[in-house]
Amino acid sequence: xxxxxxVSVCDAMTSQALAAGVGRPEQYSTIYSGMDTEAxxxxxxPRDEVRRELGLTDDxxxxxxxxxxFELKGHDDIVAVAPAILEADPRVRFVWIGDxxxxxxxxxxxxxxxxxxxxxLTGLVTPDRIPELLSAVDAVIHPSLREGLxxxxxxxLLVGRPAxxxxxxxxxxxxxxxxxxxxxxxxxxxxxxxxxLLAAAPELRDAMGAEGRxxxxxxxxxxxxxxxxxxxxxxxxxxxxxxx
Length: 244
Hints:
Elements: E1 6-8, H1 11-19, E2 28-30, H2 37-41, H3 47-54, E3 61-66, H4 75-88, E4 92-97, H5 103-113, E5 119-123, H6 130-136, E6 139-142, H7 152-158, E7 163-166, E8 180-183, H8 188-200, H9 202-216, H10 222-241
Helix pairs in contact: 3-6, 4-5, 4-8, 7-9
């Protein structure tokens, strides 16, 4: 009731807020969370060098997940589907970027299933390493069950990698049929099929990644975000000056 404007980081958050009775439609503007896109469009370190550091061979197909090792982030779904994926395609590797309180439990689950060797856990890394790590893998899996708009999704596309994501909140605004694979939450069969599809199709991965870069490089620039915020303030101030 007291706000002249409300900014959402994706259209999905506006819809959820309005459904909860917050504000009026005309108050809302979507301004996507900006970042240093150049760091992702042009990672500082060569892909081959980073892959060697991760222990990835040329023939392995790596899927990264960037998230806290925590509840609702979906790592347990990856653990559940990994045995079938590895049986069908032993080249697949999973790279988990991040750390958290579930680390020991997840590692124990991997060891119990006999698949620990297929998982590379980087632990917590500094933000400036994310571009090079995403560039070093072949695709991204983001099976989180609750987000606004996960920044790793546009980040993956900016480095030219397709993403597999559950259809939660703002994911569908960047994960399109041309840029990745969107699944219903907890669709483990679909997750298995999506990983195997992308693992077997380098041309499809390249095409999706290239389309993601083309569509979203400008939308997620921090310059675009700040320009839109300035324009919003200017419009609001003009309206106040005109007595509206």
